[in-house]
Amino acid sequence: MDQPEIGTKIAELRDAKGITQKELAGLCKIDIRTIQRIEAGDVLPRKYTMKLLSKALDYSFTVTGAVQIETNTISLKSLKMTFIAGLVYSVNAILVVIDLTSHHFKQPLRLTTYTVHILSGVLFFYGFYKLGHYLKNQVLAVSSVISIVLLPLINIIYLSYSPLVDALMYFVFLMLCINMSIFGAGILIEGSRRSDSLKDLFFITGVAIIAEACMNLSPNFNLQTVGLYISIASNIVLCAILYLEYQRMSSKRLSTDSATVFG
């Protein structure tokens, strides 16, 4: 038996038992996304996973194709790099917020601060683009790409600010806030799909990001300031999400290698 027959058979057996994909994942102690990808025919499960599925579904599978790793390719090195960029972005964001609320920075310091903000921010959101692509979360992936474009643009406009670009700056800022709301929705969507310990973290972070975006759109300066400080906290938690995903994938790769050797 090969894909897509395996995926179709697993779905049939699961339906016959009256259990959901989430319940089957729990029985096998594997991620629900693995079940979804196998049933969709996207991946051919490795031998160890087939044993778990056979036991849970009371069915003996015969796999004829080559065993594959059950994940989309994502570089752990790039994920670690974007996590580090996120830390830099989060710390540097404190300086950005101070400048936005006080306007006391001298030009050399302001230029350095916003240059770091742009470079680290691009890498940071690139990490979430890769993560969204890996998790098949198009809302997260697409909004991350838009952030990669809008974040440098709004900072460049701010650094070269003049009354002539006032309307342009407001438009880009509006688009950025709307996009951050969509990004927050992408985080929420991921939380709704999870059955692991990160579920609540995704949910809380998604709500916070949407709240900060709404506050930043407010004409009230004090509310905008609160939104900016919430964004600092949100960025730190987003860094934690990247790190925890890095740890989870590292462990999964290690267990896959072990299963390949001993399975």
Description of the structure:
By secondary structure, this protein is mostly helical. It folds into two domains: 5-70, 434 Repressor (Amino-terminal Domain), CATH 1.10.260.40; 76-250. Helix content is 78%, strand content 0%. The chain is built from ten helices and no strands. It has helices at residues 5-17, 21-28, 32-40, 47-57, 76-102, 107-134, 138-159, 166-193, 199-216, 221-262. It is elongated, with a radius of gyration of 22 Å. The chain starts with a helix and ends with a helix. 29% of the residues are buried. The model is unreliable at 65-72 and 255-263 (pLDDT under 50).
List the helices and strands and how they pair.
Elements: H1 5-17, H2 21-28, H3 32-40, H4 47-57, H5 76-102, H6 107-134, H7 138-159, H8 166-193, H9 199-216, H10 221-262
